[in-house]
Design goal:
The chain has 13 helices and 14 strands. The chain is globular and about 65 Å long. It is about 35% helix and about 20% strand. It is of the alpha+beta class and about 400 residues long. The relative contact order is 0.16. Helix 10 (about 245-270) crosses helix 12. Strands 1, 2, 3, 4, 5, 6, 13 and 14 form an 8-stranded mixed beta sheet that branches. A 4-stranded antiparallel beta sheet has the order 9-8-10-11. The protein has helices at about 50-60, 90-95, 135-150, 165-175, 180-185, 195-205, 210-215, 220-230, 240, 245-270, 295-305, 325-335, 385-395, and strands spanning about 25-30, 40-45, 70, 80-90, 105-110, 120-130, 150-155, 280-285, 290, 310-315, 355-360, 360, 365-370, 375-380. Among the domains are: about 30-115, TruD, catalytic domain (Pseudouridine synthase), CATH 3.30.2350.20; about 165-245, Hypothetical Protein Yqey, Chain: A, domain1 (Orthogonal Bundle); about 270-360, 2-Layer Sandwich (Pseudouridine synthase), CATH 3.30.2350.20. It starts with about 20 loop residues before the first strand and ends with a helix.
Length: about 400
């Protein structure tokens, strides 16, 4: 569990996502459709399905390839989310007439270009926390004030590490070209799961009973089954077996590793998340550009005004390194993971360029209302930032 920025203030307790309506997310677009062009910008509200599943259903209904549908951000299945996609050569009327399970069409208008990932300012959230402690009415204002002033730790959090919480370990093994470790981590550990059949399949693999493992693995574990299919009869062919994993999943494992290492840096700097160090690469919140801080004292006023913040590493071969204590801290995190800079050089289709990411982010329109043992939070965060990073500071239950 990562340390809290608000560790000096007790949490309110409680649980989130009790129902879909308790977790509402709405995209904040970078721009609005202009009213003309070959693309239709369709805004819909989804419930209980992922963005990719919503796109699949819409593509099937309109009989168009999924690749022709653009989207600005990914939203998971939990909760109610409102977002916009772009559809090529589809009229607004056709889009609005769609009637699909889990989806409600809200608005449609023409625009000239396809939506791409990142074409949004951020997201607005309304999150209900149920079963909070009696002292919440006194604690909540203090927590909101501190988060409004210092910002929210820019943790990725556990949602980036997969169902077993080990996707980053697969990514690290990929970079080190340790193919058996890739397969071992992909199969995972039985203690990480509740599904008994799934657990039995993992135990069978660990005991070398590959055919039993293949038979026992649930059908939805497609990657595990594909890998085992290649291993049966060729138990030493781990590199070839891991090659059965879809390239998109491999990218997710590498991204999970970057996220994990970044989170370690945030955790190590949590007590001074708003404080610059000499040699830091500071991130400008207005445009994401980074610059080197020569003398921290000369730039700290800009950090206090939330114009800039220290940045952390999304490690890769092209990522710019800070200097001084910041660089020493980041390189220490990298070394602890058993990864060297040379591992980032492209090999076998594996490549990570890397970038910088702010260690904290500003929260806008932050408010909280307490009614009995229920808290309703409303706030907005920049794109790429997770609401759970703020909520965990309030509840301190995860």
């Amino acid at each position: 569990m990562h340390p809290y920025l608000t560790a000096g203030i007790p949490g309110c307790g409680g649980t989130i996502k009790t129902s879909a309506e308790d977790f509402y997310v709405e995209e904040l677009p970078s721009y609005l459709p202009c009213g003309s062009g070959e693309h239709c910008y369709l805004t819909f509200e989804k419930r209980g399905i992922t963005t990719l599943e919503a796109i699949r259903r819409i593509a099937n209904a309109l009989k168009i390839p999924e690749r022709e549908i653009g989207y600005a951000g990914m939203k998971d299945a939990v909760g109610v989310t409102r977002q916009t996609i772009s559809l090529a050569r589809i009229t607004p009327q056709q889009a609005l007439e769609l009637q699909l399970d889990g989806l409600v069409m809200v608005a449609a208008e023409r625009h000239g270009n396809k939506l791409k990932l990142g074409h949004l300012r951020g997201n607005r959230f309304r999150i209900v926390i149920r079963g909070v402690l009696p002292e919440t009415e006194q604690l909540l204002p203090r927590l909101l004030e501190l988060l409004g002033r210092k910002g929210v730790p820019n943790y990725f959090g556990a949602q980036r590490y997969g169902a077993q919480g080990n996707s980053h370990l697969i990514g690290a093994a990929m970079l080190r070209r340790e193919w058996r470790a890739c397969v071992d981590h992909l199969i995972g550990q039985p203690d990480a799961l509740r599904d008994q059949e799934w657990r039995d399949a993992i135990v069978a693999y660990q005991q070398g009973r590959l055919e039993d493992a293949l038979r026992l693995f649930p059908r939805h574990c497609r990657s595990e089954r594909d890998v085992l299919q290649r291993l049966v009869g060729r138990p030493e062919g781990y590199e070839r077996a891991f090659g059965a994993v879809h390239p998109r999943l491999k990218k997710l494992y590498l991204s999970a590793l970057q996220s994990y290492l970044f989170d370690q840096v945030v955790a190590l700097r949590i007590d001074r998340l708003d404080q610059l160090l000499d040699g830091d690469l500071a991130c400008k919140h207005i445009n994401g550009a980074c610059f080197q801080v020569e003398v921290a004292a000369q730039e700290q006023e800009r950090a206090d005004a939330f114009e800039i913040s220290p940045s952390g590493p999304m490690f890769g071969r092209k990522m710019k390194r800070p200097a001084g204590a910041a660089d020493q801290l980041e390189q220490g995190v990298l070394q602890q993971s058993g990864i060297e800079q040379a591992n980032f050089e492209p090999h076998g289709g594996v490549s990570l360029d890397g970038e910088r990411r702010p260690l904290r982010v500003p929260v806008a329109d932050l408010s909280g209302v307490v009614e009995g043992d229920v808290v309703t939070l409303e706030f907005s965060l920049p794109k790429g930032c997770y609401a759970t990073s703020l909520v965990r500071e309030i509840t301190k239950t995860f």
